[in-house]
Design brief:
Layout: E1 2-3, E2 12-14, E3 19-24, E4 30-35, E5 38-43, E6 49-54, E7 60-69, E8 74-91, H1 93-96, H2 115-126, E9 133-137, E10 154-156, H3 159-162, H4 167-180, E11 184-190, H5 202-207, H6 212-221, H7 225-229, H8 252-255, E12 269-273, E13 275-276, E14 285-296, E15 305-308, E16 311-313, E17 315-320, E18 323-328, E19 342-345, E20 353-363, E21 369-371, E22 375-378, E23 384-386, E24 389-400, H9 422-428, E25 438-442, H10 451-472, E26 479-483, H11 498-512, E27 516-520, H12 536-549, E28 562-569, E29 572-578, E30 584-585, E31 592-595, E32 601-603, E33 606-610, E34 613-617, E35 626-629, E36 639-640, E37 650-653
Parallel strand pairs: 2-8, 8-11, 8-25, 9-11, 25-26, 26-27
Antiparallel strand pairs: 1-3, 3-6, 4-5, 4-7, 7-8, 9-10, 12-24, 13-21, 14-20, 14-24, 15-19, 15-22, 16-21, 17-18, 17-20, 22-23, 28-29, 29-34, 30-36, 31-32, 31-35, 33-34, 35-37
């Protein structure tokens, strides 16, 4: 007798709902399950598979659950079983980010009390009953097979264990425990950097127009032995085969003097380093030169220096005063994107006064960026000149944005977590149909590659949600997603923002699916890190949404203000919101932009709050036909309600319903 891997000592089962219990035993035998005096029966299949359904049970415990092969008197008992509220927590790295983790990209030299550590300590101080709050973290699995079991252990939310749990899931579960007063269990199945398509079943992929071709390619990938017989990962992808990818062009910039001290770069664009040149709208993929001018002290003259830095995504050639000092990357290599640079500078190049560090950066796909903190270091004295901040940048070659985050058939196979369906098969299938109340979801960054992929996300995510509901046999399974936090350079408005488009896909999905909800994190992002440290507010907002929408706590505000009605009249727009008690603007930063028939956007000139309404007026447009709010990758969030929850970004056009 073997039970499914999630049935272990210390498990939390879902209250007030049929409780499925399944496993494997001898073939064609009667099987029983007993929990708290209730016994149910079934018969195993010819292969020994069985599933039983215990009747709904009130919250409580601890109990014992015993499952028995009656004919052979073969039984398994799991103990210390609680019954309460169980939620699935899934997504990519911001859901995976552990309570005891510190995944910051840029860590200051002296940071003894970072936000992530403060929140971990706060969690331990706030937890009511660690014995009655438990978690099960599914270990990563991208085997490519339809797995029936998974690795993981039910653990109590004690300090020695809870460091390992998703921080968002931890704060979410704590909010439920505080309000409901029952045992809580969270099942965490997440993997950083993954697309939604990896979490869908093959059947769902094949049925959805946006992903049907992907399903076809997945099937055809099985005809190529190298994808399934050789261990593969992103570094083994042959990028040269992918459409849109171009090789590093001839270095014209060095011939034109871009690395020289006396070159005039005053017409070049400003670029924040660390930062992405794509997100700062300097260029697409291709070659970007970045220059930083510094003053070398007299005491440094003729001293050996080192250019010490973060990394360049993907290749670089670096120069000091016009002389090449180092570089990494050739052809279509990707492994150097996160390698710290360390380039010696010969003493004879070091003169007192004006000096220039220049980097010729090349990226053939995905992002292009100069990452981390950069310094000139005096090897004799140990002194440093900080190079972070504003550099001058110019595109030597601009290929446009080349994105292949939708998995390509060239990348399909084991150990590539972005292979379609691979995480559904490896990390969700073994959990189905474990009884859960609902799912929380923090993902989307990997689908926000372009405006087009961001718009497609609405249909893809809806198909994934519908798939999960079918798989679990719960057509109204509550699904609560986190709307993407702000990231990259701060801007009041960027019409072609891919992240704003993805947030709009999330907003529209939640507005049109009666059992899907959204908690916005738009105001708690970080410019230089895609992993905001503030997971407390994310978990809290998810919990407030669940308590209101799923548990009927009408006294709890579930989200920020949501637009429900918009009236356009000449140069005036009036928007009515729900969840708008004490509606307020917390800043006078420009965040609302209006457009007329010509499509040109202008900031609103007058903003006035009247109860649950916001009135916008433009002095530049006679007939406004569109309004956008917080429309950029990292916008200013200025509209809040009395619960201090931010409004989602939104786009509304005249005639929208």
């Amino acid at each position: 007798m073997i039970l499914a891997s999630i049935f272990q000592d210390g498990a939390v089962l879902q209250r007030d709902m049929d409780i499925p219990v399944w496993g494997k035993c001898a073939g064609r035998v009667p099987v029983s399950a007993t929990l708290d005096g209730e016994t149910v029966f079934t018969q195993s299949s010819a292969d020994g598979d069985f599933i039983l359904y215990l009747p709904p049970h009130d919250a409580g415990g601890p109990f014992e659950l015993t499952v028995t092969d009656i004919r052979n008197n073969d039984s398994v008992t799991i103990s210390d079983v609680l019954i309460g509220e169980v939620w699935l927590a899934s997504g990519q790295s911001n859901m995976e980010y552990q309570l005891g983790g510190d995944w910051r990209v840029h860590i200051p030299e002296k940071d003894d009390n970072p936000v992530c550590r403060q929140q971990e300590k706060q969690f331990y101080e706030m937890i009511m009953d660690a014995d009655k709050f438990r978690f099960f973290s599914v270990e990563r699995c991208a085997s490519g097979a339809e797995e029936r079991s998974c690795c993981g252990t039910w653990k109590k939310m004690l300090p020695e264990y809870s460091k390992e749990v998703s921080a968002v899931a931890a704060w979410f579960g704590l909010g439920l425990q505080y309000e409901l007063g029952v045992p809580v269990g969270v099942v965490v199945s997440a993997w950083g950097g993954t697309v939604a398509e990896a979490w869908m079943s093959y059947q769902a992929l094949a049925a959805e127009p946006e992903t049907a071709e992907m399903a076809k390619m997945l099937r055809s990938s099985h005809w190529k032995s190298k994808f399934w017989t050789v261990e593969r990962n992103e570094n083994t992808i042959d990028y040269s085969l992918l459409p849109g990818v171009k090789k590093n062009p001839e270095n014209r910039g060095v011939t034109l003097g871009y690395a020289n001290v006396d070159f005039d770069d005053s017409s070049w664009l400003d670029m924040n380093v660390p930062g992405s040149w794509l997100e700062q709208h300097i260029a697409g993929n291709g070659v970007v030169w970045a220059r930083k001018t510094v003053d070398i002290p007299e005491s440094w003259a003729n001293c050996p220096l080192v250019l010490q830095g973060g990394a360049v995504d993907k290749h670089d050639l670096s120069y000091f005063n016009g002389v090449e000092i180092g570089g990494l990357g050739k052809d279509f290599e990707v492994e150097h994107y996160n390698t710290h640079r360390h380039y010696p500078i010969a003493p004879e190049l070091v003169k007192a006064g004006r000096a220039v560090v220049a980097i010729r950066a090349f990226s053939f796909a995905h992002d292009g960026s100069i990452n981390g903190n950069w310094w000139l270091v005096n090897e004799q004295s140990g002194e440093r000149i900080d190079l972070t901040g504003v550099w001058k940048a110019f595109a030597e070659a601009d290929f446009g944005r080349v994105i292949h985050r939708k998995p390509s058939a060239e990348a399909y196979g084991p150990n590539n977590p972005n292979t379609p369906s691979i995480l559904f098969n490896g990390m969700l299938r073994p959990l189905i149909p474990y009884a859960i109340r609902g799912a929380i979801w923090y993902q989307g960054e990997s689908n926000a590659a372009t405006v087009e992929t961001s718009r497609a996300y609405r249909d893809i995510l809806q198909a994934m949600i519908d798939d999960w509901r079918r798989q679990w046999g719960q057509p109204a399974l509550p699904f609560i997603m986190v709307q993407l936090a702000g990231h990259c350079i701060r801007e009041s408005f960027y019409a072609e923002s891919n992240w704003a488009e993805l947030r709009e896909s999330q907003r529209l999905l939640a507005a049109n699916d009666p059992d899907t909800y959204m908690a916005s994190a738009i105001d708690i992002g970080e410019e230089k890190d895609i992993h905001p440290q503030n997971k407390l507010d994310v978990g809290k907002r998810l919990a407030m949404s669940a308590l209101h929408h799923v548990y009927g706590r009408d006294n709890i505000v579930p989200s920020g203000p949501e637009p429900v009605k918009t009236e356009f009249s000449g140069n005036r727009v009036e928007i009515t919101f729900k969840y708008a008690e004490n509606l307020k603007l917390i800043s006078d930063e420009r965040a609302f932009y209006l457009a007329g028939e010509d499509g040109g956007f202008h900031p609103a000139d007058l903003l006035e709050v009247k109860e649950d309404k916001l009135i916008l007026i433009s002095n530049d447009i006679d007939d406004v036909v569109e309004v956008r709010y917080a429309w950029s990758n990292f916008p200013s969030a200025v509209l809040y309600n009395g619960a201090n929850f931010p409004a989602s970004s939104f786009r509304i056009k005249a005639g929208d319903k």
